[in-house]
Structure formats: C-alpha cells, structure tokens
Design goal:
single chain, about 525 residues, Serine Threonine Protein Phosphatase 5, Tetratricopeptide repeat
C-alpha cells in the first residue's frame, strides 16, 4: 500500500479523508492548511494528488501545483485536483482564485468536506462572513464530527458578535479548544463578551499551562483580558512578554495596544514608538500614538501623528475620519471638511462618519448641507434621540423655530435626560418670544445640571428683560463664576448693573466682555466643541 493509503481512514459517510495535516489552523494565511476529502477512487488514479498533498504539507507550493495540474485531465481526479489548487491558492493568500478553484471542485463533487471548509475560509478572508458561515454549516451537515469546520463556524459567529451562538456551536469541542492557543482565544472572546467573568478567569490557568504559547498569541490573549476588565491578569501577561518585543515590530505594536487598553499610557507610548522605529511605515502605529496623545490631552501631538498616518495611507477612510475629527476639534475647518467628506465618500454606509461630517458643516455654517446629512440619517432612525437633537439644533440655527421645537421635543420624548436638547429647546422658545416657556426649560435643566454655565447666561438674560433683577443677578454671577471667559455672561452682567445704576461696575463688565470678544476673534486655534449632546 502507498504512503497515502496508510494515511487514509474510512469515514462513516462513505468518504475517504486524508489525514496528512494537523487538525487545527487559525485565520492567519501563513499558518493555513486544509484537510482534503478524497472520493473513493483507486490509488493508481490519485498518484498526482498524493504527490501534491505531500508537497503541500512540506510547503513546496510550486511543485504541489505542478502535480495537482497533472491530475486535472482525469475526470476521476479532477475535483480533487481543483480542490488541491484551491488549497494552494488559499495558502498563497490569493483568495479570489482559491474561491474559483474550490467552487469548481464542489460543483463536480459536493461531498468534498475539506474543500467546503476551505471555501468557507476563503470567503472569510474576503470579508464575506455570511458565505463563510453557509459553507461551514454545509460541511458540518455532511460531517458533524468535523472539528475544523465547527471551530471555524464558531469563529465566524464570534466575528459577527453572535457570541452565544459561537459558544453553542463550539460546545461539543470545548475540551479540545482549551488545549490550543486559538481555541482559548475564541473561548476568551465569547466568555468576555457575554460577561462570564468566572469562565474567562478559568482560562488563564489553561493558558499558563500551555507548553509554549507564542508571544503573538499571548499578547492577543492579554488584549482579550484587558478588553473585558481583567486588568491584573492582562498586565501580568503583557509584562511576561516585554523581553520578546526587542526587534519585532508586530509584537511591540500589540504590546503597546495592550497597555493602551489598560489605560497605561506611558508604556503604551513607549512600545508604540519602538514599533514605529522598527517599522517606519507602520500606519497603525501612528494612529495608536495619536490615540495615546489625545488621551494625554495633547491634541497638537495627536494631529501630528494623524498627518503622518494620512501621508502614508491617504485613501484610508478611518485615518481620514480621525484626522478630520481632530482638525474639527482644533477649529481647522478648511482641513477638516475635505478629509471628512472623503472619508464619507470612501465609506458612505458609516453613520458616525456622516454625523461628524454634518457637524463640521454646522461649524462652517453650511447649514443646508448639514440639514441634508442629518436628514438622511434621521430617515433611517426616525426615533433616534441624538439625531432629532442634531436636526433640531440646525433648524434653530436656520431660524426655523417651529421645526426646531418639534425635533427637540421628539428628542426629549425619546431620551428625557439631555443637556443639549433641553438647552436648544430653551433657546428656541427664547427666539420665539415665549419667555415663560424658556425660563421653565432653563430652570428645570439647571436643577439636574447645576454647573451648566450657558443656561445660567440665558436664564439671566431673560430675567433681565422681565425686570426680575435679583434672580437675574444670581444667575449671571453663577454663570461668570462657572465660565469666566464667557463673553455673553459679562455682557449681560454689564447690562444688569447699568439697570441697577452701578455705572462703574457696569463699565468694568462691558469692558471685560469686549476684551474677551477681541481675544476670541484673534485666536487662530480656538478649541471647537463638536455639535454633540453632553
């Protein structure tokens, strides 16, 4: 009997299965393999397929392809040869070609379970999880004991955030999963996402007992622990891997991201900078360093990293979005708008991108464009509190007060406890001349949020018009104490003091108001607050 014959075991479905490769594989192309299912043909007919399988297991892809192509001409081995070519292309990360070969193989022989599993993996690498799921499910229908297909299906469900379904699928193979790095990573992700802290904690011991867990997998495991609140355990994992990152940029990056997840900004920055030194073209390093700088409160440094990332990858919508958002925060509107518009053009289905682009248009006083963008989102989510607030605030700025009132009331109906929606509703009533309704809104708002300076300013201004000077003075003094840089608070206080006959004090307040207004106009880098509810 040939070497292949010695490795073939009869399967209960009447299909032969090649046992020439280890069972487990991950979703990393460099470590892929596929179990090839052989139909019951004579050994003489599969010499070329046997040779291709042997060469493939040895990593000799070119030679394996040569042998597989020799089997294409024989109809009894054509399906196997196509499956082998699809497997080779999968290992070469040529996923479209792999899909084509594997689809042809399955058209000739739908019972090739390994080819079906490989096709699922090819779809997964192409970002088509639904098609991947269908193929893994079909593989399990043909062979319910196929651990490879079951594991991959569980990973697909986890990638789609169907964590309970992932655990349900993985149930029969949990003991095997707890003995492998990738299995433990999957279980950790599922348990963490489902809030099963004790189950997650129980995996730490399994991980520590792994004979030789790779540094990369260890850092991935640590990141899962950090993500789901196991800070001490995650920190221990990260510290154990410090010595492994010296000359490996990928590991340094993962370690930096891990410390960032723990909020340990100094070691995060150190490792991310080290990764960038080792790999100056690392775009993700620049992005992560921008995140560190932003969390440190250094928006200028964050912007510098995002500029570098944008130069290295100018068509990346995520980078464009983060760059545009940072420019918007720093009031660099001429830079913010083109970047955000391009991000939306590249990723039109991203609603956060559209929302921030609309906010940038508000800042630039492009109110019609902003209303159009918010309106598109509101059509998809008519009862969304934030979108109704945003639309109402734009209507207010456009002077469409009845429309503003309707949108803001809807926002507060859906989510009563809001600062921004209540504040803009008060502004709307004020602009409509409905002083009593405006005063009621501002008073109610300040009961819940007694440190909201803008509401004190507006309340004080209305009470001043109503000649309720004592209460107006209390509100305006509180506004100035909370926000000494408020132009309007000092201006309204000046008017009030003038009414009270305190001319010198009035002149002082009005002078302060003019001074602050001048500084605001001269300032070229004023921090802009996004149009977002507080």
């Amino acid at each position: 009997m040939s070497a292949l014959g010695e490795r073939i075991k009869y399967h209960r479905c009447g299909i032969y299965r090649l046992q020439s490769a280890p069972l487990w594989h991950t979703l990393r192309p460099s470590r892929l393999f596929t179990i090839i299912i052989l139909s019951s043909v004579s050994f003489a007919q599969i010499n070329h397929v046997e040779a291709a399988a042997r060469l493939l297991s040895q990593g000799q892809l070119d030679q394996a392809e040569t042998e597989a192509r020799k089997a294409l001409g024989n109809m009894s081995t054509r399906a196997l040869a196509l499956a082998m070519l699809g497997t080779i292309r999968l290992q070469e990360s040529k996923y479209a070609e792999s899909t084509s070969f594997l689809t042809q193989a399955l058209a000739l022989n739908p019972h090739l379970v390994g080819a079906r599993t490989s096709l699922g993996s090819a779809y997964l690498f192409q970002g088509k999880p639904e098609l991947a799921r269908e193929n893994f499910q079909e593989a399990l229908r043909l062979d319910s004991g196929n651990v490879n297909a079951r594991f991959n299906l569980a990973k697909v469900e986890a990638s789609l955030h169907n964590f309970q379904q992932s655990l349900d699928v993985a149930g029969p193979i949990v003991p095997q999963l707890r003995e492998t790095e990738d299995g433990l990573l999957l279980l950790a992700t599922d348990y963490g996402a489902l809030g099963r802290k004790e189950k997650l904690k129980s995996l730490v011991g399994d991980w520590q007992r792994m004979p030789a867990a790779s540094p990369e997998s260890s850092l991935d495991f640590g990141n899962v622990l950090a993500t789901y609140g196991m800070e001490g355990e995650a920190k221990a994992v990260f510290e154990s891997q410090e010595a492994q990152v010296a000359e490996q940029p990928t590991l340094a990056f993962k370690l930096g991201r891990g410390y960032l997840a723990l909020g340990m900004l100094d070691p995060a920055e150190h490792n991310l900078e080290h990764a960038l030194i080792l790999n100056p073209q690392c775009v993700a390093c620049e992005q992560s360093l921008a995140e560190v700088a932003e969390r440190q409160g250094d928006t200028e440094k964050a912007l510098a990293h995002l500029i570098a990332a944008k130069q290295k990858d100018p068509e990346n919508p995520e980078i464009l979005f983060e760059f545009g958002k940072m420019c918007l925060q720093r009031n660099l509107l001429d830079d913010a708008l083109p970047a955000l518009a391009k991000a939306v053009a590249l990723k039109p289905d991203s609603e956060p991108y559209v929302y921030v682009l609309a906010s940038a248009n508000v800042a630039q006083h492009n109110l019609s464009k902003a209303a159009s963008l918010f309106g598109e989102l509101l059509q998809k989510h008519p009862q969304d509190a934030i979108l109704n607030y945003a639309m109402g605030s734009v209507y207010y700025l456009q002077g469409k007060y009845s429309e503003a009132e309707a949108s803001l009331k809807e926002s507060l109906r859906v989510q009563h406890e809001q600062v921004a929606a209540s504040y803009y509703l008060g502004l709307t009533y004020d602009s409509e001349g409905q002083d009593d309704q405006a005063v009621e809104i501002f008073r109610d708002l300040l009961k819940s949020y007694p440190k909201h300076a803008p509401s004190y300013v507006k309340l004080g201004g209305i009470l001043l018009r109503q000649h309720q000077y004592d209460e107006a003075q209390q509100a305006l003094e509180r506004a100035v104490a909370l926000d000494p840089g408020s132009v309007e608070a000092h201006y309204q206080m000046g008017l009030l003091l003038r009414r009270l006959g305190k001319t010198a004090e009035s002149d002082q307040e009005l002078a302060e108001s003019r001074k602050l207004e001048g500084e605001r106009r001269a300032q070229t880098d004023v921090h802009l607050r996004l149009l977002l509810p507080e």
